[in-house]
């Protein structure tokens, strides 16, 4: 179980440093639209095409040796699944992703291609939380 706590400046610096060592920086584009500056962060340039990889990398690198040896279980319909699978593969951690059976085929296939095991469920009749807890 993860215990949530207030972020600190030191914690944010630590996260930024860990992420910067492995993931490319992404540009921020600012354009004026109808007199208002609008910023676009190009997270689509990340290895999985989404920002979710940042949180997955930060969390998995924080695991101790025993937790890494046990493997990780997460639930997601797509981008978080791919982020966890990517980070787990890079760190040599087994990953199981609980994904709804109606998730986009491309998301499921991409998660499998990144080395994770995918367990599907029916979101209308099953609980991803219960399935993930059972697998953990």
Short description:
By secondary structure, the chain is α/β, with parallel strands linked by helices. Helices cover 44% and strands 20% of the residues. The termini are close together.
Could you characterize what this model shows?
Helix 4 packs parallel to helix 5 (105-113). The chain is 44% helix and 20% strand. It has a domain at 52-135: 3-Layer(aba) Sandwich (Rossmann fold). The chain has six helices and five strands; from the N terminus they run αββααβαβαβα. The mean pLDDT is 95. A three-stranded parallel beta sheet has the order 3-4-5, with helices on both faces. The chain is globular. Helix 5 links the parallel strand 4 (95-100) and strand 5. It has 136 residues and is an alpha/beta fold.
CATH architecture of the domain at 52-135: 3-Layer(aba) Sandwich
Largest sheet: 3 strands, parallel
Indicate the radius of gyration in whole angstroms.
Answer: 17 Å
Shape by Cα distribution: globular
Report the total helices: 6
Mean pLDDT over all positions: 95
- Would you tell me the structural class of the helices and strands? alpha/beta
CATH topology assignment of the domain at 52-135: Rossmann fold
Number of beta-strand segments: 5
Model regions low in confidence, pLDDT < 50 over at least 5 residues: none
What is the class of the domain at 52-135 in the CATH system?
Alpha Beta
Main sheet: strand order? 3-4-5
Distance between the termini: 10 Å
Strand content: 15-25%
Helix-strand sequence: HEEHHEHEHEH
Q: Tell me roughly what share of residues is in helical segments.
A: 40-55%
């Amino acid at each position: 179980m993860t215990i949530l706590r207030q972020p600190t400046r030191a914690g944010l610096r630590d996260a930024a440093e860990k992420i910067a060592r492995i993931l490319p920086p992404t540009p921020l584009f600012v354009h004026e639209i109808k007199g208002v500056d609008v910023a676009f962060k190009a997270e689509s340039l990340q290895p999985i095409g989404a920002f979710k990889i940042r949180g997955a990398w930060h969390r998995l690198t924080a695991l101790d040796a025993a937790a890494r040896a046990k493997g990780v279980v997460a639930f997601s319909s797509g981008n978080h699944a791919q982020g966890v699978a990517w980070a787990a593969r890079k760190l040599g951690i087994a990953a199981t992703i609980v994904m709804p059976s109606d998730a986009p085929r491309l998301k499921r296939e991409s998660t499998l291609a990144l080395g994770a095991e995918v367990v599907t469920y029916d979101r209308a009749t099953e609980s991803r939380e219960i399935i993930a807890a059972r697998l953990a």
